[in-house]
Every structure is written in structure tokens, then in C-alpha cells.
Design a protein that fits this description.
Shape of chain B: globular
Structural class of chain A: alpha+beta
CATH class of chain B: Alpha Beta
Strand order of the largest sheet of chain A: 2-1-3
Order of helices and strands of chain B: EHEEHEHEEEEHEEEH
Number of helices of chain B: 5
Number of domains of chain B: 1
Radius of gyration of chain A: 16 Å
Number of helices of chain A: 2
Strand order of the largest sheet of chain B: 2-1-3-4-11-10-9-6-7
CATH class of chain A: Alpha Beta
Shape of chain A: elongated
Largest sheet of chain A: 3 strands, antiparallel
Structural class of chain B: alpha/beta
Order of helices and strands of chain A: EHEHE
Distance between the termini of chain A: 6 Å
CATH architecture of chain A: 2-Layer Sandwich
Number of domains of chain A: 1
Oligomer: heterodimer
CATH superfamily of chain B: Class I glutamine amidotransferase (GATase) domain
Distance between the termini of chain B: 7 Å
Number of strands of chain A: 3
Amino acid sequence: MKISAIITLKKDVLDPQGKVIHQTLDGMGFKDINEVRQGKYFEIEVKEEDPEKAKDLVENMCKKLLANLVIENYKIIGTQ
Amino acid sequence: MKSSVITFPGSNCDRDMDVALKKFGFKNSMVWHNDNELPKSDLVVLPGGFSYGDYLRCGSMAAKSKIMQSVINFAKSGGLVMGICNGFQILVETGLVPGVLLRNKYLEFICKNVFVKLDNKENTYFKNLDKKVLEFHIAHNEGNYFCTKDQLKEIEDNNQIAIYYCNNEGKVEDQFNPNGSLKNIAGIFNKEKNVLGMMPHPERMIDQSLSGEDGSIFFKNLINNIK
């Protein structure tokens, strides 16, 4: 079963990369942007077939390694 | 005095640290990241470099490597653990010291000499140091120290800020902050002050003809404090 998770920076953490991407997009003519925040996306194929159990497993991975909870949030966004 | 330097895949300041520790009288062992047990040590050093290619987040993989469980136990029992640069990044990922190290504010890799202010001397690392300002070298892309407001309050209440970026006179101001670190923080202690994480490299300042000798001052003082 494949689980997808995204890691995003918490609201008050500075994201210099997001800022530069914003500026570049702005320079390219995309003028209607308020803010850009960059994050990470993971697809994890697990052996577990039960969707709830698989979700719990990946959530645990997020807590223990994939995200640093001081600055990042994680969200399981899909199972397939 | 016995020291151990841990080598992770991608460490590149481990041998410099070995040279520095031996120069000032430590009997040093190099320890591989995949080992289970630390040799008997008075000091454990996590060196600089790019452990695991800085994948995911700097230091995040190294923080989970086999030897780190012994290092964490050693630190929790009061042992001296010092993380320099990538070693500092590893320490924050283990949770032994609070906060995180983000990418430098202006997205540049910074490689230059800086001055740091040390006025926190009630600890084994800086006790008895006469000088208040030392010149060290920094070389990093992710040295921008950050922590939550609650953590900052706790750090300040417990006097855990170890060193600040400053000018040659010890002035701690924004213009002397190379990477955007919160409050110009260059190094942090754990609550008990036996664990020190810092971005600057004292081991690069141990030879008068190559660099400067402020690192020598630091190491000489450190070994005297441990004896």
C-alpha cells in the first residue's frame, strides 16, 4: 500500500527558499502571489495492507524521522 | 584524558579534530558510526562535515545511527559531548540540545572567520578562559539557529546560550550575525551544560602559521578543566 505524506514548515518559521521562489515567480510576471512556502513530499510503499494501520505506521515515521516537529508539520494526504 | 571522535559517512572534519585533540594532550580514538559501544571517554566529539550527504535535513540520519544511542546515554549520564558544525546539527536532531539549524538567511554557503563572544563560563568548556572574544572559523550552509518562543525563554532562563556571533570587541549586533541566527546564537548548551553544540570550528584555529591560535586557547583550557 502506498501512503503519501507532506511536510510543511510551520507558520512562523522563515522560509528563505520560498521567498526566493516567490520573487522569481513575481519577476516572471506572476504578480498575484501573497506567499510561497516550500515543503517536502514523500511516497512510502509499505507492506501493511490495512489502510488505517499503514497510515499509523507512516505517521510514526513522520514523527520520528521525516519531520522535525520544532519547525515542521506533517500531513498524511493519501493512501492507495 | 581520553576522547572519541565519531566518524559518520560524509564527516570531513573528523581528522582535523583528531589532530587538534592530540596536539593538546587527549588520547583520541576514532569511532565508526556503525559501532555499538563508545570506548571509555572523557569527551565525545561529533565532528563537522556532511553526514549522509545532508539528505532529508542536515544531521537527521546521523542522529539515528547505531553509535548515537551510546552517545545519548553517555550525555544523559553527564558525559561531555561536543558537536561542531554538522555535529551541532546532529545534536539538535537527537534532541540533546534544543532548537534547530535552518538554512542561512541569505541562502549562501558561508566560509569565513568570525568572532564569538563567550561570557557563559560556569561550565567545563569555558571555565577559566581569560578571553571573552575568540576568533573561530565557520563554514556552513545551515547554521541559522532557530527555536520556538517557549524554548527561547527556557534557554535564556537556564543560561544555555554558549556563544554569540559578535565583532572583535565583543559587540553582539545584527550586523555581525553571519547567517540570521536567532539572537546571534552560535552555540548552545543542554540544561546541564555537559553537551555543547556550536557552528564555529575551534579545530581550524590551532596553528599560528596557518590560521590563528584561538582554537589552541580553547583546547588547552578544555583539557585543563577536564583533568
